[in-house]
Amino acid sequence: METQKNVHALINGEKPVLIDFFAEWCGPCKMMPPILKQIEEHFGDRILVEKVDVDKHPLTAQYYQIQGVPTLMLFKSGMILWRESGVIPAPMLIKILEEVLKSVEPAAGVNSDENQDENKMIN
């Protein structure tokens, strides 16, 4: 992330964004890149994955009350959907994110041709 403005633009976007708040000096944070790579591979374009260095973006870290690193936060449309501090293994993180995304993504079949045809028959 280049600027604080970019962070806020992503957080307020329609696409879910998983942000890894980290610090260069943090040992556990160094375990996150391969985990985040697996998240990107699993979810593809369903979510964005970004990293924010708390030392380079202290106001953002303060605003979101980042007390420890790594801290992962999932946002959509400016809302915090999920938050957790510490290293989370990729399989567990995928399961958590799938559950959270299930609650905010449109259900399959909504506005499908089948539903529209059914609505026409009723009217």
Highlighted features:
5 helices; single chain; alpha+beta; 123 residues
Structure description:
There is one protein chain. With 123 residues, this protein is an alpha+beta fold. The chain contains five helices and four strands; from the N terminus they run H-E-H-E-H-E-E-H-H. It has helices at 4-11, 32-43, 58-63, 90-104, 113-122; strands at residues 17-22, 48-53, 71-76, 79-85. A four-stranded mixed sheet has the order 2-1-3-4, sandwiched between helices. The N and C termini lie far apart (51 Å).
Helical content stands at 40-55%
What are the low-pLDDT stretches, counting only 5+ consecutive residues below 50? 112-123
The counted number of beta strands is 4
Arrangement of strands in the largest sheet: 2-1-3-4
Mean pLDDT over the residues: 87
Order of helices and strands: HEHEHEEHH
**Backbone CA Rg:** 17 Å
What overall form do the CA principal axes indicate? globular
Largest sheet: 4 strands, mixed
Q: Give the helix/strand class.
A: alpha+beta
Task: Produce a short descriptive summary.
The protein has 123 residues and is an alpha+beta fold. The chain has helices spanning 4-11, 32-43, 58-63, 90-104, 113-122; strands at residues 17-22, 48-53, 71-76, 79-85.
Secondary-structure map with pairings?
Elements: H1 4-11, E1 17-22, H2 32-43, E2 48-53, H3 58-63, E3 71-76, E4 79-85, H4 90-104, H5 113-122
Parallel strand pairs: 1-2
Antiparallel strand pairs: 1-3, 3-4
